[in-house]
Design a protein that fits this description.
Elements lengths: L15 H4 L26 H10 L14 E6 L7 H13 L7 E4 L10 H9 L3 H4 L5 E3 L23 E5 L2 E5 L7 H13 L4 E5 L15 H14 L3 E4 L5 E4 L6 E5 L17 E5 L4 E7 L3 E8 L4 E8 L9 H4 L2
Parallel strand pairs: 1-2, 2-3, 5-6, 6-7, 7-9
Antiparallel strand pairs: 1-11, 4-5, 8-9, 8-10, 11-12, 12-13
The structure holds fe (ii) ion.
Length: 331
């Protein structure tokens, strides 16, 4: 039995009007949230509620739950410049009113096709204008469609590096370039992981180590190189893209893997049916994801282009010290 269990939460499904933008995060235990039936009514009178509803987005999304948590958004395979990317961007902007994330990670394939200055406008700056205008930083990883010179594009916050790390609260993020997992990068990631004493260790890059995608599937070579380091140094969660759908993987060696490459392109029906790797899959619409890293749990929600919550849950933090607990993670 793995030490860590994913606690599916049956999150409260509420519209924004019932939650309110200023609602304080609740201390409600994640496993005891109550589903509200269609006839449940908020305590407030109907007229103000109706007026509020008219001006608020309709998104199945809960507010953050923990005071002081690290809140972020997750986008993958975004850079098409087409209608779907803009629709997801618009919805994610609205979602900030309910779930005010502080930054966004991008899982690669940030700009498809030509990469002229006007392409960065059309395929990044415009679709996420509402988020960027609120001074929310983006942190990008490079995908197979991305020119490595993207690392010099200021709004991607890569500081001229193919792979880099940054800290947010008590979480450390590691952005990798999975296109070229050479010795230099492997040495770097091992060094960085070994010296990191942050509560959370989160890795993100483009190619998924585990995937049920019929088109690509798991990147086994890459897994051979990275997984031993992730296990040894206690990486908690890994985000990847490349597959144009959403998939939450059955925990592997104590690590939780998410594939989120469906923020603009969609490979409909591509998740292999009955794959033993799939905890939850969604391949019928585009999505964005939000998450908060709390003291002991990461809460996540995945929202479709139509505002439906298609997955949510809670991932427990692995107890420290992580390195002394190697055996439990390699079940
Ligand atoms: Fe890709």
């Amino acid at each position: 039995m793995p030490l860590r269990h994913l606690l599916l939460t049956g999150f409260l499904i509420l519209g924004y009007s019932a939650l309110g933008a200023q609602q304080a995060p609740t201390a409600e235990p994640v496993a005891t949230a109550t589903r509200v039936g269609p006839t449940s009514k908020p305590a407030a009178s109907a007229a103000p509620a109706a007026a509020a509803q008219a001006s608020k987005p309709s998104i199945e999304l809960s507010a953050p739950r923990e005071m002081g948590s690290v809140r972020f958004g997750i986008l993958g395979d975004t850079g098409t410049g087409d209608r779907r990317q803009y629709e997801v961007g618009d919805l994610m902007t609205k979602a900030m009113q309910i779930f005010p994330f502080e930054f966004v990670i991008m899982l690669g394939d940030n700009i498809y096709g030509s990469e002229r200055p006007q392409d960065f406008v059309k395929k990044f700056e415009k679709p996420y204008e509402g988020i960027l205008s609120q001074k929310i930083p983006f942190y990008a990883a490079l995908g197979n469609h991305d020119d490595p010179t993207q690392r010099y594009y200021k709004p991607f916050n890569m500081n001229g590096e193919r792979f880099y790390t940054f800290k947010k609260g008590d979480a450390r993020f590691f952005a990798l370039d999975s296109n070229y997992m050479d010795q230099e990068q492997l040495k770097w990631i091992e060094e960085q992981l070994s010296r990191a004493n942050d509560r959370w260790k989160i890795a993100f890059f483009h190619h998924p180590l585990y995937s049920s995608g019929a088109r690509h599937g798991s990147e086994v070579d890459l897994r051979t190189r990275l997984e031993p380091l992730f296990v040894k140094y206690g990486v908690d969660i890994v985000f990847a893209g490349h597959e144009h759908f959403y998939e939450r993987i059955v925990p592997q060696k104590g690590i939780y893997y998410f594939t989120q490459g469906g923020s603009a392109k969609l490979r409909e029906g591509n998740i292999r049916v009955n794959s033993a790797l799939t905890s939850k899959g969604f391949d019928t619409d585009n999505v964005f994801m939000v998450a908060e890293l709390g003291k002991d749990f990461m809460q996540f929600q995945v929202i479709s282009r139509r505002g439906k919550r298609v997955d949510s849950g809670s991932v427990p933090l692995m107890p420290e010290p992580k390195q002394a607990d190697d055996k439990s993670r390699s079940q």
